[in-house]
Amino acid sequence: MNGMLAPEVLVLGASGRVGSGVVAALLEAGSPVLAVARDAARLQRLAAMHADEPGLEVMVASVADDGAAQDLARRIARRPRPLRAVVDATAGVRRASRLLDQAVPVLSASLEQEVLPHLAAARHLLPLLQQRGGDRYLVAGGPHARCGWAGYGHASVAIAATRMLVQVLHEEAQPLGVRVQMLSIDAPVWTAENTARACPGWHSALGVGRAMVSLLARSSPDARCIVTYADNAGTMPPGLLGREFASVLDAASGAPGASDAGRAA
């Protein structure tokens, strides 16, 4: 294939609960993944879990502010692989407390930790995504964005603000040819590490990850800005990205019968 590389999916917050599920689901579907997180130790544990996956690369970086996100975009721009999509699975620290029991600056800090990294990432990665041939930008939404989360008032307000941010980005990114969407997750997420304390109704990280993959793999993209996660969306979609990447690369290389194969897929 003349040395061409399959496009990769960038996962921000890859070592977190949702992020780790997205990474696993993408690898399961045959997609190369660039996993980004700011905690080097957790990122190495993620890499060790998928040590037999040649399609996984990890990068220690942050999108905590404009400067950090700009530096990340510059590093990705130097990579040889095309960029197919971005999945933003970053999340702020969520501590139990009542709004009325805390000083006003506590809410300001929650907004800064939860919302601003999403904006910093979008400002620098959306233009890069367009330049490198990608067209999907997904954000993982936290629980209780529309109804208050009992005992987590600061998180509820910040998550609701993130939901509005995505709605604005959805409109503003249309001229770039990039579809920005949020997968709204209405309950906390469990992984192998927190299974013992998980409650009924929590969603599995892998199930959420598979739902993200389904959004990325649809040949006719879902037009909605906010897509609500449902448990049945977490089943493994057949074929998906591996087949899609193969047909795209075959067509690009001029392989005989490639156009017919692409239509059949």
List the keywords:
globular; disordered C terminus; two-stranded parallel ribbon; alpha/beta; 43% helix; Rossmann fold; 265 residues; seven-stranded parallel beta sheet; 15% strand; 9 strands
Overview of this protein structure:
The protein is α/β, with parallel strands linked by helices and 265 residues long. The chain has a single domain (8-264), classed as NAD(P)-binding Rossmann-like Domain (Rossmann fold, 3-Layer(aba) Sandwich). Helices cover 43% and strands 15% of the residues. The chain is built from nine helices and nine strands. The strands form two sheets. A seven-stranded parallel sheet has the order 3-2-1-4-5-6-9, with helices on both faces. Strands 7-8 form a two-stranded parallel sheet. The chain is globular and about 55 Å long. The relative contact order is 0.15. Mean pLDDT is 84; it is low at 242-265.
What is the compact description of this entry?
With 265 residues, this protein is α/β, with parallel strands linked by helices.
Layout of secondary structure:
Blueprint: E1 8-12, H1 17-28, E2 33-37, H2 40-49, E3 56-60, H3 66-77, E4 83-88, H4 104-114, H5 116-131, E5 136-141, H6 153-172, E6 179-184, E7 189-190, E8 203-204, H7 205-217, E9 226-228, H8 240-253, H9 258-264
Parallel strand pairs: 1-2, 1-4, 2-3, 4-5, 5-6, 6-9, 7-8
